[in-house]
Amino acid sequence: MRKHSIEKGALGRVYQDGEFITRQGDVGQVMYVIQQGKVEVLMEKEGRETLLRVAEEGEFLGEMAIFDHEVRSASLRAKGEVKVLTIDKKNFLKRIHVDPSLAFRIVQTMSQRVRELGDEVARLKG
Amino acid sequence: MADSNPPSRQDQLELVDGSRVAVIGGGPAGSFTSYFLLEMAERADLDIEVEIYEPRDFSCPAPGGCNMCGGIISETLVQNLAAEGINLPDTVVQRGIESYVLHMDVGTVRIETPVDEKRIAAVYRGAGPRDIQVRKWGSFDHHLEGLAEARGAKVTRGRVMEISMDNGRPCISVKGGEPQTYDLLVAAVGVNSPALKLFKELDFGYQPPETTKTFIREYFLGEEVIAEILGDSMHVFLLNIPRLEFAAIIPKGDYASVCLLGEAIDKDLVDAFLSSDEVRGCMPDDWAPEPRSCQCSPKIAVKGAIQPYGDRIVFVGDCGVTRLYKDGIGAAYKTAKACATTAVFEGVSEDAFRRHYAPVLKTILRDNAIGKVTFSATKLVQMMPFARRAMLRMTQKEQSIPGRHKDISQVLWDMFTGSAAYMEIFTRAIHPRFLGRLSWELLAAVAPGKRSQP
Question: Which of A94, A117, B26, B314 is the least crowded, having the fewest Cβ atoms under 10 Å away?
């Protein structure tokens, strides 16, 4: 079987290195699942960038936009070539209404991030 | 007086630690059920065994590994699977579809995806057509079966020869093997499998769904020709050919799949479609209907099964209930997940399935009733040239004027892709703005001097 690079024909949308997928402050109507590659999660304040983390293949990003009405809390930027699939807020919420277990992985992801934040707060205070 | 031998938890029609589940059929319905049974059981700290019985090896080219299907994974299903953590790799997705091209005798219009992204997957259920030389992509069904296996399901490559009940528990015999007793039997055999007959022996009232025949033919064109001629677009045809309801040409990697839906599809109907100007216009100049790579006439369910569940037995996928004409794999996912959730959290009794699984089936069946109405409306458009002209003009305007509401484009997109419920499509189609614009275009199409091409 041939080895596939990130190519035009596959699912999702391809972003080039350094291209923003979404910007902090944008109104979010979708969340993202990384299909291939890595994505930088950045906070931008007064023209300065702080790299929060680098997300990898299979990770959900921008999931907070699905559940709250706030603008994006961070920017997402392609680190190298990356392929991302979007999940529409409206369709996802409609499906969760019928099948609440569909939200399980998102809740797992958010739970993991709360733990990581807790560890980070403890590290900064310690 | 109290019973001296109270029933154990296992006898109480529940799945408990050590329970065994047999899944007959390793296609999407069977693999999704196995995958979600094991996932739900893990969440509930339940240790169960799941065994899939599937005689075919989906990694083989047709017909040995083929599951006879057009091979489109809808936009909604792609997103739902991604939310489940199931991503479809490029090794399986032969082509991401980004637009639909509607071909009619009055003209052609391209309907672009509402988002700037490919979220519809064209796949082969098996490893590809009969004459495949180089296997560049893998089988979709094999991929799903692998996911279920990775979750802990055991796959037995054997044909089930007999199904019986042993003290209220389903018992399965495979050729050359000892009979095995299970706590739950999941039938995911589809409507094209001879295994469906085995369930008639079990006396709980199951009757298979009514079916109709479809037609699928594969043509080898080569990756470059496909990219140049068909592109990343699914080509759909609304032609006034008697008995033809719907037709599509789906670009895959090296092949194009021709899919026909209609009434009593025979050679004459296939020839009429393939020799039409509209089909010839979107295929390469030197293309001819023969030679072909392979073809099949699979059955699809047009009604739901009667009583698709009982104590310790349940039917998922199209041998139970599926969506009318579209998104059969999406229906397999929904029924499989509802079945797994019911079995793990509510029990495996007929009552549990009636209360927690049947409502999902009823929702699909109710939507199919609306689907019949929408397909009847499409049939009317097929028969009336002025209606085809009106539809073409309205779609062309929406696609060419930036910012214009995509009323008919969205209706057609959802009809062709199977992404939305028929009820949603119907609701959009009776919106006053939609009806107003369509009425205007219908008037324009019948008015003297306005019959020229838009």
Answer: A117
